[in-house]
Design a protein that fits this description.
Layout: E1 28-31, H1 41-47, E2 51-56, H2 59-73, E3 78-81, H3 87-94, E4 105-108, H4 114-120, H5 122-127, E5 137-142, H6 149-169, E6 174-179, H7 199-211, E7 222-224, E8 228-230, H8 239-253
Parallel strand pairs: 1-2, 1-4, 2-3, 4-5, 5-6, 6-7
Antiparallel strand pairs: 7-8
Helix pairs in contact: 6-8
The protein binds NADP nicotinamide-adenine-dinucleotide phosphate.
The site of NADP nicotinamide-adenine-dinucleotide phosphate has 29 residues, from loops.
GO molecular function: oxidoreductase activity
InterPro entries: NAD(P)-bd_dom_sf
Keywords: Membrane, Oxidoreductase, Transmembrane, Transmembrane helix
């Protein structure tokens, strides 16, 4: 299994394609950062009949994306206005879903305050198990391994949190995986020369982690490009760090 080093940057030929995605009728999903290139996953989800909420800060941006996706797939995604910069705004965005909805997949492609978003939607995620053929609900967090300081710290914490979600909710049927989507020329990487630009293939890694039944055996783990199990830095599996972070996060939102 590739470890946390540059081998994750060398692409293997994917053994999974969108033809392997099962029918997703009755399944409800949320994709954050959904208007960015990396979230081409939405196309495949719609093509396989999922009901997809596209989360973004910008209503206008999502409306354009929804229109384009309708032309491409014949299916209509739904808008979820979401700004992850602020806990009150996250709470407002999840208000209407918390009790009544049943989500079987959240694809977390932004990296900020996803823990709180997921925590608020936990009841809706647990209800989503019913609609999923393998009896599980999933949260897939895009992350990576790396050396840039602040950015990598936030990605590191994403992986730790995902691992802790698996630990705390795994026995209730929640699968939490983190995903290194690969190095991609998206808005985030627009100033870095020479990057690969395989956005479509990157979406496959996220879809594989999010949809295939066999991934349920790898709860808390890390998926890497393209479509492989990998390992993140050893510290992300450290339960002392994980529990400390979990307590810290609970503390931050206890009065919200
Ligand atoms: N690109 C790569 O090579 C690469 C490699 C490894 C990991 N990743 C990870 O993959 C994820 C997506 O990367 P990307 O390259 O697609 O980035 P991107 O092009 O910069 O897109 C990020 C998306 O995040 C959303 N966003 C930013 N701030 C937000 C906020 N406060 N609240 C809600 N949404 C917010 C934006 O959506 P709106 O503007 O619509 O709100 C934007 O579409 C990130 O977590 C990144 O760290 C990327």
């Amino acid at each position: 299994m590739p470890s946390c080093n540059t081998s994750q940057g060398y692409w293997a030929t994917p053994t999974f394609s969108t033809n392997d995605i099962p029918d997703l009728t009755w399944r409800v999903m949320i994709v954050t950062g959904s208007c960015s290139a990396i979230s081409l996953v939405v196309v495949a989800l719609l093509q396989h009949n999922a009901k997809v909420y596209m989360a973004s800060r910008s209503e206008k941006k999502v409306e354009v994306a929804i229109k384009n996706l309708k032309e491409l797939t014949g299916k209509e995604a739904l808008l979820l206005q979401l700004n992850l910069c602020n806990v009150a705004a996250i709470k407002r965005s999840t208000q209407e879903f918390r009790r009544s909805a049943a989500f079987s997949l959240v694809l977390l492609s932004v990296g900020l305050r996803h823990w709180y978003f997921t925590a608020l939607l936990m009841q809706a995620l647990l209800s989503g198990k019913e609609s999923s053929s393998d009896g599980h609900t999933r949260g897939i967090t895009t992350s990576k391994t790396g050396t840039q300081k602040l950015y990598s710290q936030s990605k590191f914490l994403n992986v730790v949190v995902s691992h802790q979600v698996a630990k705390h909710y795994g026995d209730q049927g929640v699968i939490a995986l983190s995903c290194n989507p690969g190095y991609l020329k998206t808005d985030l990487q627009r100033h870095i020369a020479g990057l690969e630009c395989k956005v479509v293939v990157s979406a496959l890694t996220q879809l594989w982690g999010g949809l295939l039944p066999e991934l349920a055996q790898h709860n808390g783990e890390f998926v890497i490009p393209w479509v492989r199990m990998g390992k993140c830095r050893p510290e992300t599996y450290d339960d002392v760090i994980g529990e400390q972070l979990w307590c810290y996060l609970q503390e931050q939102v206890k009065n919200t």
